[in-house]
Specification:
Elements (H helix, E strand, L loop, with lengths): L1 E17 L2 E6 L15 H4 L6 E3 L8 E4 L3 E14 L2 E15 L2 E9 L3 E9 L1 E11 L14 E9 L4 E12 L3 E14 L9
Antiparallel strand pairs: 1-2, 1-12, 2-3, 4-5, 5-6, 6-7, 7-8, 8-9, 9-10, 10-11, 11-12
Length: 200
């Protein structure tokens, strides 16, 4: 049975820089009303170690631990990531391992002056997100913030999922130390899987 059906889920988040470290700070209404788990939220996924997205003082190989053994590792830098939006060089990869509300693994690749270009999340199933399109009008660093900056991500792998999903993020306000991010998730249900929870 094929079904043509779509959903939109919208939320707003805030990112905050404290002592040079970037944090996912507030999430009013985040992921409310969505059909899917909040592992569709790339910014949130990358902040599972005490809300820390990254610490620019970390060097490759450095590990930060918190919350009963959860850890964030700066795994590598200078790598090339191939995405639908293009090939990105000199990327840095941070990896979360542990357990944060069911999310056990998150691998995020940042490209300087572009932002997140790739993310692999394990939360029961596995999802791989790749950058599909983007607009960067200003800002610098691994995650540049300026009003009008936009990123769109699509899934490369969805174990057992019969959906096409796109995630859209846009900076709607920014200062030197903080940014407000509007997030939209677009889901297209292609078919029912009667053996799955969603299909029931």
């Amino acid at each position: 049975l094929n079904l043509e059906q779509t959903w939109w889920n919208q939320s707003v988040t805030e990112e905050l820089t404290i002592d040079g470290k970037l944090y996912f700070w507030t999430q009013p209404g985040y992921s409310r009303g969505g059909l899917h788990f909040s592992n569709d939220g790339l910014f949130y996924n990358a902040s599972r170690l005490g809300n820390l997205i990254y610490d620019p003082d970390m060097k490759v190989g450095d590990v930060t631990t918190a919350n009963g053994g959860n850890k964030l590792t700066y795994r590598e830098t200078g790598i090339t990531i191939d995405t639908p939006a293009g090939v990105f060089e000199d990327c840095s990869v941070f990896v979360f391992e542990g357990n944060s509300h069911g999310l056990t693994y998150c691998e995020t690749a940042f490209c300087p002056n572009v932002g997140i270009v790739y993310q692999k999340v394990i939360w029961g199933n596995t999802k791989i997100w790749k950058l599909e399109s983007y607009t960067v009008q200003g800002g610098t660093g691994l995650l540049p913030f300026a009003v009008g900056n936009k990123w769109c991500y699509t899934t490369d792998s969805q174990e057992g999922m019969l959906y096409e999903i796109e995630n859209f993020f846009e900076i709607t306000a920014a200062t030197e130390d903080s940014a407000t991010v509007k997030a939209n998730c677009f889901c297209h249900l292609k078919a029912y899987d009667e053996s799955s929870w969603h299909g029931q």
